[in-house]
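Action item from last week, closing it out:
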Amino acid sequence: MSDPVREAREELIRVGLLGQLRTGGVPELIMRSWRRSISSSVDSAAVSRRYTDVDSESVLLRAATPVLDRWQHQLTDTGATLFLSDRAGSIVARRASDSSVRQRLDRVYAAEGFDYSEDSIGTNGLGTSMVEKRALFIEGSQHYSDALATLACAAAPVSAPDGTVVGSISIGGPVETANPLMLSLTREIGQQIEERLRAASRPQDLALAMSFLRFTNSKRPTVVMDQESLLANTPGLTYVSVDSHVLLWELLSQHDWSAGDTARMLLSDSGTEVTARRVLDGPRDHFVLHFTPREHTAAPRRAQPAAAGTAPTLVEGPRGSGRATRAREVCAPDRPDEITVVPGTAALWPTVTELLAGGATVLLRRIEDVPDAQAHRLARLLADAKRLPGKLVLTASPQDAAPAVKSVLDDLTPVERIQPLSRTPDRIPGLVSRIFDRLDPGGRHTVSPAALQALVQWSWPGNLTELADTLAKLVRDVDAAVLQREHLPQHLRQAQPRRRLTLLAAAERDAVVKALDTAGGNKSEAAALLGIGRTTLYRRLREFGLDDDESSL
């Protein structure tokens, strides 16, 4: 007996995606799925054996297991089997009470760990319902794989509270016992799993999810975030990372929102414009960000370094701010290691003149240490540098120099002024990466988001030198691959957030820090010393950025 559905599928395979085809009563949904299966080069005559280990501790499986156990009992003796897949299409749970049914399913690899995504096995309930984002019923030859032609299944996608599809649920069985009512039952099971996912979510996570559903669309890069978590649509993924999450939070926390709940900001490193909205719904404030790339905005022009034989180049900045590193990058970006570094000591200046005469690039450091009595010799060296073929680069902090030396430096136009880290926290993630490249070339260590956030919040009175020394000690003393906030020195773990605090809030924060110190970090004892409950203390710790819990970061 002919099968018109199978014949339609075989004709589509024969004529290809661009060929003309009479559908022969095949539902449009099935036809779309067949076309996707062909474009993914799925073999209709074979069953994929792609396999991955099942994560038994996944949020989806933990939420679904009680629901599956309950429904397995109710479906006993029906011949039906329950399947749960993750978002990638891998089966993570199967409930079949009949051993003969399990053996039959094993023959088509419909078991835990095997891939039933549409890309892998073609049209099927688990995979196709996620692609179509709707509940559906597929029976017999509507499946793309010949091996599934004797089965029927009802399936529905399972969504997280933010609307993201995280998996699918399916009831399957022999095609001769199939019943369209299976579809209603599958929807009910999926809704019960989604309800457990919502119940397992924190109130703040639900608030983020609601804002994400409210403000996002498929085309505009959108991110919804708080200090611990963020949600992004596909266009918004380009703009977020661990580093950018930390920096955006600091930027938003420092902003004065008294003028309104919406602000426009420009990310200086990329020229991207951000429209930020503060949302007050939920246990804590959070933010909705829309990104607009400013591709045609010309970048600010930076002063160019002096050419050989012209005026020396000056890089200004406080001691330890990274001015020498920046001087190398400015004057020899392709060969920074070829620069000869000389301390700003007058006794060595004849050597500097010889090097310049030979065409070398020389970095003369810490000119603020030159005594007043040697200012005339410094002026003569700078005059000589103008006529010699080499290049002279200086680093200095003019405000810390002796008056006569400062007068000499005033004749130079600095190519760049380096600000202290306390005023440029956005530099810290990049500096951390570069320092780790030097200290840990094997890449044994990384920094957790919470630890990076603590580094950004610290004022770094010792500037880059203090940062480098801190990271060197961590690399030396900590064996863990991921450096957590708990590994940082205590003054960094308790660094005050850069956002503005009222006098009362600042005093309250200081009291919390003192109580924690007195209690040796024991939060119950600290709460008792403060005369507040533990729940209130935990809330204060989050508000003041003192929470060491990294589980959600």
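Closing note: Residues 313-412 form a domain with the Rossmann fold fold (CATH 3.40.50.300).
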